[in-house]
Each structure stands twice: as C-alpha cells, then as structure tokens.
Amino acid sequence: MSSKIDQKDINNAAWAACDTFRGVVDPAQYKDYILVMLFLKYISDVWQDHYEEYQKQYGDDDVRIRRKLERERFVLPVVKLTEKNYETGEETVLDEFPATYYSLYERRSAANIGELINIVLDHIEESNKAKLEGVFRNIDFNSEANLGWTKDRNKRLKTLLEDFNKPQLSMKPSLVSEDVIGNTYIYLIERFASDSGKKAGEFFSPIPVTKLVAKLVNPKPGDRICDPTCGAGGLLIKAAEEVAKQAGDDKQAARNFALFGQESNGSTWALCRMNMFLHSFDSARVEWCDTLNSPLLVENDRLMKFNCVVANPPFSLDKWGAESAESDQYNRFWRGVPPKSKGDWAFISHMIETALEKQGRVAVVVPHGVLFRGAAEGRIRQKMIEENLLDAVIGLPGNLFPTTNIPVAILVFDRSREKGGVREDCKNVFFVDASREYVSGKNMNTLSEAHIGKIMATYAARAEEEKYAHVAEFAEIKENDFNLNIPRYVDTFEEEEEIDIDAVQVEIDDLEKELAAVREQMSIKLKQIDRNAEV
Q1: What's the distance, CA 183 to chain centroid?
Q2: How do residues 294-305 score in pLDDT, each as one tens digit?
Q3: Rounded-to-integer distance, Cα 31 and Cα 161, Å
Q4: I need a labelling partner for 155 at 20 to 30 A (CA). Which of 9, 71, 289, 500 fits?
Q5: What CA–CA distance (Å, rounded) separates 185 from 194?
Q6: What span, in angstroms and rounded, lies between the C-alpha atoms of 317 and 388?
Q7: Which of 192, 124, 110 is nearest to 154 (CA)?
Q8: What is the residue range of 118's domain?
Q9: Number of structural domains, the chain?
C-alpha cells in the first residue's frame, strides 16, 4: 500500500507545475489554469479511487459501476467526439473516453489538446449543474491570446498535464485527506497573490487577517455566514473552521452552518466555487454579482439576513454606484449615501442591513480613512454610533497585504447592542491599537498566532491596557465629533529618555582627544612619506 502524501510535498509539486507558465503568462492569469488543473486532478483521482472500489465488488460490470458512481458527490461523464456526415445525416464516433484528467493525459500529445481540455470541462459542468455550473466558463485552455500559438500552446499544456501526473500530486482519498487538498489550494492562492501584486486584491486576503476577522464575529453552530465580497472564499472557510472549533467533538454541530457569498469578478467567483467544493462545502451558495448594485442573495424581494457577516471589501472603491444609491430598492443607504469616489461605507451599510436585527454580528477590514473622514462618511459613521451598533475598532499594522502597505483596521458591529438587543446597555466602543504587533517579513508583514491570541484575549476582557486598549464611552466619542481615529483614544506616545548633558560633554571631550591623537599620527606618517619621496 502506498504511503500517505505529505502536505509539503503536494504543495511543492503543485507550485513547481507553475514553471510551465512563468515568464510567459501573467501570474494573475496562469493561476486560473493551475487551479483548474488541480481541481480536475482531484475530482479525477476521487472518481478513479471510487471506481476501483466498486470494481472489486462488481468486477468488469461497467454498467453497474457507473450506476453506483452516479450517486456520488459529483459525476464524471463519458465524452463522445463525433463527426456528422451532412449528406447522409449519420454520425461517426471518432473518440470516446471518460471526462477525467487521465483521459487528457493519455491524449496530451494531441494537436487539439487545448480544445479537448475545454470539452472535458464543459461535460463536467453540464453533468454537475447544481454544484459546478459556470465554474469553467471563464477559462479557455485553447486561448491563443493567453497561451500562445498552437505549437507553443500544445507544448505548455502537454508539460502541465505531465507535471500533474507526478506521484506527489496523487489525490486519491486513500493517500491524501480533503484537508490537505484544500490547504494546497489555499497555499497556491497565497503564492499567486504574492506574485500578482496589486491584482491580488481581487481574490486574496492574508490568512492571519481572515483568521482574526472570523474569530471576531464568533460564528456558532446553526449560523448563516455571509461574505458579500468573498474573493476566493478564504474568509468563509476560516469562519467555518471557527464553527468546528466551537462544536468540539460534536461532528454534526461542526457541519451545522450555511455559507453564502457574492463576488463581482467572474474568474475569482469560479475560484471560490472550486475552493468551497475542495473543502466539502458543496452546499455553499456563492453568487456572481455586483453586491452594491445588483445583489443576488435575496429572498422574497428582500435582502437575505445572516448571523455573521464578514468582509475585506476593496478599499475606497471608486465609481461604486452612488448615482443610483438614493433609489436603492433595498433601502440600504438610508443613513446617507457615501461619496461616489469612496465605497467603504457603502459596503459597511450593506453588511449592517444584511445582519439579523438584534443579534447579527459584522466584522469588516477597512482603511484608516473610514475612521475619520468627514462629510457624508462622517454623518453615516455618527448615525451608526448613535444607534449603538459599533462594538470595537481594532488597528492593525501596515504592509499586511500584497496590494498595499497602508495600515488597516477592523470594525466590529454588533446588532445585539441596538434597542431591544441583549447588549443594549453596552454604550461604549472598545479600541485596540495592535499596529506594533507583527512579524516583519521580506515583502510583507504578518500576524503570528500570539498576536491574534493577544488581540482576542484583550477583546474578550474588554479592559483598559496602557498603550494598547481603551474603552471609550459614548460621551468621549461625541466630544471627538465621532472621529474614530485610534490615537485619539489609545495613547502610544513614548517619551524620549532625558539626555544627560554632562555625560554627553565628557563623551565629546574624549572623542576630541582621540581625534587629536589620530591627527598627530597622520602628520608623522605624511612627513615620512615626503622624505621617502625626496630620496
């Protein structure tokens, strides 16, 4: 029996497969080809593993085996390539094979390999509409624009298929767990984000940040959890992991939650759907839509409501749709319409309105300008504070994201604080300044487990901590004109040590003596050089 495959080995093998495209295709594009191939290899290996199990029971009875396989999580159909004789109307079968990675590997030298990959993906989509409809529509393995002329394209695709046939990338359930596959998918997304620079913001949020945001909303078994700007789905997965931690050994409770997401970028939406599938969250509902202008998480013409709403929206999004916000059919912007050049409070308003009344919790990553900018944003901020919705402001270090080096903050809103909620007596806002808590990296900073643990312990205690945390009563915030800039509430000023003038003067005197001695030695050396020159 083959030995289990290590997480590190599968990660390295998957990343090495990217060499086929490096220097030829932009990382923001080739990530789609790699991740789709990883997904295809995974479902093919699971299918093959189950086929072999049923073969032990039914021998070569392919009909019975396929009948069994049709009851699996997903179906990999048979592809029939035909040619029609238009004079006789008869069709001739040119080729027939299962829609799997292995069928493509056998045909890797075919002159039309890009077209064959597309055909296989189309058949898989068609046979699994409920779970995978539209997932591959934005990826074209026969694209001349992305993958080059036919000869070069075929060579690259052949190499890619061969790279995924390595033993380290065998994804049979008998060799590797679903957790490992899901971790590899996230690992690749993280590496692609590092390579993609500013483009990474479309699909990636740093894992430590997603972990912290998920912990702050404290999802529980039975909750409905939503990310209205879900990217590749990292925040939703971290929230699901938090539910599992709370459930402990209760496996039923650990799976008792529902995930929802919305994403405006088609390619990123497809990555998220595959990510959900690889983590066995097949029932997650992820919509491809513009959250602010045409949300699709709607029930009976009203926005769906959730226990937990989390997001890392695009920072200060320009042209977000302010022109039509006043006539918004869901009345999300009744507190005011944010400026058309900065959509931060538009996303926050949407999140608040989709959180369940008197119980929903919201955690959102924002740039610091959200805390203090005035005009329309200031008025919206004031109203939310007056409604007693804001629970905490947590400042984070700079350079945590591949897209920007600016420091960010997390705003936590709790609708159980509003009138009629169980926490309506809580009239303060908790400020945490964790801006100096980070691990410095070559390209990016990060939060360690210890940093996340400290933030969460401080948040849970909700107590004053010098130069780190402060409980601000409503009157104090009002006195600051509802400006939430963290330094107004958490004083991190460090006094400089007093300078001992006498000690400094002694040090200067000593240095001058040393300098005089050096000058005397240099003068002697120069005279010796002059005498030698004369001789």
Answers
A1: 13
A2: 999 999 999 999
A3: 15
A4: 9
A5: 15
A6: 26
A7: 110
A8: 7-176
A9: 3
